[in-house]
């Protein structure tokens, strides 16, 4: 942990010494001395960090190093802030000089240079004493350099691809069939609550996921939803999550839903579920209040709907579903037990050796004896077994190595109590390589049971300085390796994967989150608001806020000049508190304002936060950024989510930007006056570090500047694309060969500003002439990383040449294309395509044919809003791997394609139609194959 602090500051200091040689002036010698001393410190810390728990002397020494590294970082950053602030004040007083380059001058540094000199000298003396203590108190003998924790992580060539999913690892014998039976068997038609009960770490969520994803359960219920409840639940958020799961909503409707109150949301949900057989999973319920807040919104239409609940408390299970039975109450619940010796050993071998068949593992008698002793310490708790096996999977499979782990397990259990698995979890944390410790602990800032978007987590790690450079690899790739290594060690769980197999989202088990929060507090890495002792405040460097209860107490933390990260998961900071930030919190590097409601204008004072690297504002309303945003020259990540946002054109000055995620963000056009004030052209081509670019189309697309962004991995453009569909645009797309995802949305309507819109009252919509998109697009044959493409625009026809398409395309979505020719005849040839979506009148023909031998890899097909389509034909031998088919609002299709009957792998058929003949055919036609189709079909009658 201390090693991470030193490494982060050391890299920052080294860059400053190189890039800003004139910044420190006469103090440069002291600054370089500080840099050199920190380099020596870091070498010893890589081993010392992992030995803190075994010796109080090492722990004290490491704490002192961490504190002096923080002090040094604060001194340097505060000096830079003061110099910048002084320069801005001078230029404000001399407005006519604003057009001059804002270089650092001697006059800017003079008031602060002597103060910096004395403070850096003081820090260097402190470091000298700390390093002297290493020999004075015999720490050198305790801190050796043969630890395995000095690795720099798996290289790009050695990245792990786990073959075993979390749900395949924990075998809870009998549990699957028992819970599944409670959900789909029996003649009880009233809505029932089935509960899975057990202590933390037994695998309640894992079992619930297995049951929820089982094909029998998917086919039995018409619609499904999964919500994580936890101790910090909010009924309104639970309702929103269920609605988003069971209802197909447009972006506009989702926005409207977010503006509704709890009662209105409950009515919407109740009305929608009223005629449907549904399954809702409520995971990790701590209080009966969670069920009470939802029960009346989940309609009971006497059709066999079910609620599946996981909880640690048997009383909650009993209260949730009481049945009146002569003289007593009974409940439907399955109580998980601890694993027996055989089950524990099987799970241990699977995870340690990465195999699905544990009988393939052959161990010598001494190794098996050692292994069984290690497993015995886990007391049959699956979480402890999986985490400890994850640790052993990274070790040599030798007797000496396992003996060392067994000794460590004994020591940790003695510290945490013999009945506690926390000792084993702590051992697994302590065994992490130094570069992973901060990354793991940081997962604790997120609310309990939350699903963590992997890209955001990695971007936060980068902004916090936890990712260490490794050759020419990007920080994002290294961060992905770090996350995969934590998953491999079972410290983090995969929640969802992307189409290309990488992690889309993850989560951390409650017990591991508790460990992360506890260790982070000891290491002074961050504080979560629920654990803050307001009667005894201390200097907090990172603060995570989850609930509204902190409103009255937050101001005291906004007077903390050392605060580096402020992350809201509740309502954002109030305007009155911005003054405290401007006056006191000058060194913020991470600011996540959470979800804003209504129109939100970021204060001009945001420009004071010159060290800011990460800025996020979630929501779907209007956000306006001030012109002072151009002072945030260290900003790496600007995420405005789905907010309609106004972004000054000077955003192009921020050359450190790596991710500009503002899907509905409109870049202002520079005025003639501002053009005179800027030396040289200012455009998107300045942002050569960009990996994510999501914006509304505008004049910034003119020319070929977009093509200069050769590191771009995700491009999302929407709005009025038509005026920019020129040679420069298409040439630029052809140059972006690092792309993974490409989304182009050419709106039929564009938003035209009026006087009313400028004051936030409304938008005026104007119809624009559509221009065909594809003819200008050049071949994607060089885009070997591009796996996901979504095009929303008019297309005359699809190119027939297979070479035109990305060679590794996995997912293709076409919307509003108005194709005249059957697209299936062309797309059937693509060998890698797994997901195909044709929606919003993408095909204007009346006949569609999936021909024999076509779409050999396709797993999911969505046909939606194809208003002219009358006949869908599936020939024998077509779609051999199709698992999911959705046909929605294609009202002219009168008959089911009989070729569906021969699709043996089809698991889910979702039909939304107002055609009575089609519905009757599915419901009434006799035959074994029709019976199978009926089992996997969910019908939603729509006109």
Structure overview:
This protein is an alpha/beta fold and 943 residues long. It is built from 31 helices and 35 strands. The protein has a 17-stranded parallel beta sheet, sandwiched between helices. Strands 2-3-4-1-7 form a 5-stranded parallel beta sheet, with helices on both faces. It has a 4-stranded parallel beta sheet with strand order 15-17-19-21, with no helix packed on it. The longest helix has 38 residues, at 56-93. The radius of gyration is 30 Å and the shape is globular. The protein starts with a helix and ends with a strand. 39% of the residues are buried.
Please supply descriptive tags for the structure shown above:
alpha/beta; five-stranded parallel sheet; 35 strands; 943 residues; 38% helix; 31 helices
Give a short overview.
By secondary structure, the protein is α/β, with parallel strands linked by helices.
Between the first and last Cα atoms, what is the distance in angstroms?
60 Å
Given the C-alpha coordinates, what overall shape results? globular
Kindly state the mean pLDDT as a whole number? 84
> So what's the oligomer here?
single chain
The main pleated sheet reads as: 17 strands, parallel
Overall SS class: alpha/beta
Strand fraction: 15-25%
Number of helices: 31
Global Rg: 30 Å
Uncertain regions spanning at least 5 consecutive residues: 96-102, 145-171, 324-330, 750-764
Q: Roughly what percent helix?
A: 25-40%
How many strand units?
A: 35
């Amino acid at each position: 942990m201390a090693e991470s602090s030193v490494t982060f500051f050391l890299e920052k200091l080294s860059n400053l010494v190189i890039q800003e040689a004139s910044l420190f002036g006469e103090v440069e010698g002291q600054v370089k001395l500080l840099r050199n001393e920190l380099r020596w410190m870091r070498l010893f810390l890589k081993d010392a960090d992992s030995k803190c728990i075994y010796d109080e002397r090492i722990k004290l020494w490491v704490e002192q190093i961490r504190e002096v590294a923080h002090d040094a970082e604060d001194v340097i950053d505060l000096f830079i802030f003061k110099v910048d602030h002084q320069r801005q004040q001078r230029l404000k007083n001399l407005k006519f000089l604003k057009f001059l380059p804002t270089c650092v001058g001697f006059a800017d540094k003079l008031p602060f240079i002597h103060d910096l000199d004395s403070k850096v000298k003081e820090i260097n003396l402190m470091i000298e004493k700390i390093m002297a203590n290493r020999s004075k108190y015999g720490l050198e003998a305790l801190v050796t350099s043969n630890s395995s924790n000095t690795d720099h992580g798996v290289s790009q060539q050695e990245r792990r691809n786990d073959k075993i999913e979390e749900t395949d690892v924990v075998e809870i014998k009998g549990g699957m069939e028992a819970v599944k039976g409670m959900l789909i068997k029996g003649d009880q038609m009233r809505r029932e609550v089935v509960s899975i009960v057990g202590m933390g770490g037994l695998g309640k969520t894992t079992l619930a996921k297995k049951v929820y994803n089982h094909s029998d359960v998917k086919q039995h219920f018409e619609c499904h939803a999964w919500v994580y409840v936890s101790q910090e639940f909010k009924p309104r958020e639970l309702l929103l999550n269920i609605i988003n799961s069971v209802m197909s909503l447009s972006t506009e409707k989702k926005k409207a839903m977010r503006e509704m109150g709890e009662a209105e949301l409950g009515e919407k949900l109740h009305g929608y579920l009223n005629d449907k057989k549904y399954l809702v999973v409520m995971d990790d319920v701590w209080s009966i209040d969670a069920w009470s807040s939802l029960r009346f919104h989940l309609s009971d239409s006497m059709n066999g709907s079910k609620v599946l609940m996981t909880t640690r408390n048997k009383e909650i299970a009993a209260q949730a579903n009481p049945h009146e039975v002569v003289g007593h109450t009974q409940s439907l619940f399955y109580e998980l037990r601890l694993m027996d010796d055989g089950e524990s050993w099987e799970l241990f071998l699977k995870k340690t050796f990465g195999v699905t068949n544990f009988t393939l593992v052959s161990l010598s008698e001494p190794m098996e004896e050692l292994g069984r002793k290690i497993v015995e310490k886990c007391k049959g708790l699956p979480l402890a077994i999986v985490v400890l096996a994850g640790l052993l999977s990274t070790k040599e499979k030798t007797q000496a190595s396992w003996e060392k782990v067994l000794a460590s397990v004994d020591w940790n259990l003695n510290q945490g109590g013999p009945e506690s698995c926390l000792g084993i979890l702590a051992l697994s944390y302590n065994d992490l390589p130094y570069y992973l410790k901060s990354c793991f602990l940081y997962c604790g800032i997120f609310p309990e049971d939350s699903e963590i978007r992997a890209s955001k987590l990695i971007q936060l790690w980068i902004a916090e300085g936890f990712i260490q450079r490794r050759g020419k690899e990007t920080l994002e790739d290294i961060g992905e390796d770090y996350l995969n290594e934590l998953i491999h060690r079972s410290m983090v769980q995969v929640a969802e994967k992307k189409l290309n197999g990488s992690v889309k989202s993850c989560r951390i088990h409650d017990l591991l989150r508790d460990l992360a929060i506890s260790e982070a507090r000891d290491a002074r890495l961050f504080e979560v608001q629920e654990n803050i002792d307001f009667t005894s405040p201390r200097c907090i460097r990172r603060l995570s806020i989850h609930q509204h209860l902190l409103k009255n107490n937050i101001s005291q933390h906004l007077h903390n000049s050392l605060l580096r990260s402020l992350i809201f998961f509740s309502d954002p900071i109030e305007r009155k508190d911005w003054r405290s930030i401007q006056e006191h919190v000058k060194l913020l590097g991470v600011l996540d304002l959470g979800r804003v409601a209504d129109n939100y204008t970021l204060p001009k004072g945001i420009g004071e936060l010159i060290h800011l690297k990460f800025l996020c504002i979630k929501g779907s309303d209007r956000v306006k950024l001030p012109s002072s945003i151009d002072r945030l020259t260290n900003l790496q990540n600007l995420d405005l989510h789905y907010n309609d946002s106004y972004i000054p054109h000077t955003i192009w000055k921020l050359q450190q930007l790596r991710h500009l995620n503002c899907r509905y963000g409109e870049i202002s056009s520079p005025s003639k006056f501002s053009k005179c004030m800027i030396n040289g052209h200012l455009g998107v081509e300045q942002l050569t570090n960009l990996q994510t670019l999501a914006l509304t189309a505008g004049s910034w697309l003119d020319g070929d500047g977009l093509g200069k962004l050769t590191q771009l991995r995700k491009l999302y453009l929407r709005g009025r694309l038509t005026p920019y569909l020129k040679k420069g645009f298409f040439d630029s797309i052809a140059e972006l060969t690092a792309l993974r995802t490409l989304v182009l949305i050419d709106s039929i309507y564009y938003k035209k500003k009026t006087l009313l819109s400028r004051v936030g009252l409304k938008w005026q919509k104007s119809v624009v002439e559509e221009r065909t998109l594809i003819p200008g697009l050049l071949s994607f044959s060089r885009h070997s990383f591009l796996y996901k493409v979504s095009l929303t625009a008019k297309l005359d026809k699809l190119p027939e040449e297979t070479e035109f398409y990305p060679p590794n395309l996995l997912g293709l979505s076409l919307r509003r294309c108005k194709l005249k020719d059957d697209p299936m005849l062309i797309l059937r040839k693509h060998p890698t395509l797994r997901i195909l979506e044709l929606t919003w009148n993408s095909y204007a023909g009346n006949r569609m044919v999936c021909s024999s031998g076509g779409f050999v890899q396709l797993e999911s097909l969505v046909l939606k809003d194809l208003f002219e389509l009358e006949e869908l034909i599936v020939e024998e031998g077509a779609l051999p791997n199709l698992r999911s088919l959705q046909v929605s609002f294609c009202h002219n299709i009168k008959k089911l394609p009989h070729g569906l009957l021969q699709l043996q792998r089809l698991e889910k058929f979702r039909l939304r139609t107002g055609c009575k003949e089609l519905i009757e055919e599915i419901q009434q036609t006799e035959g074994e194959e029709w019976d199978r189709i009926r089992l996997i079909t969910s019908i939603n009658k729509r006109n």
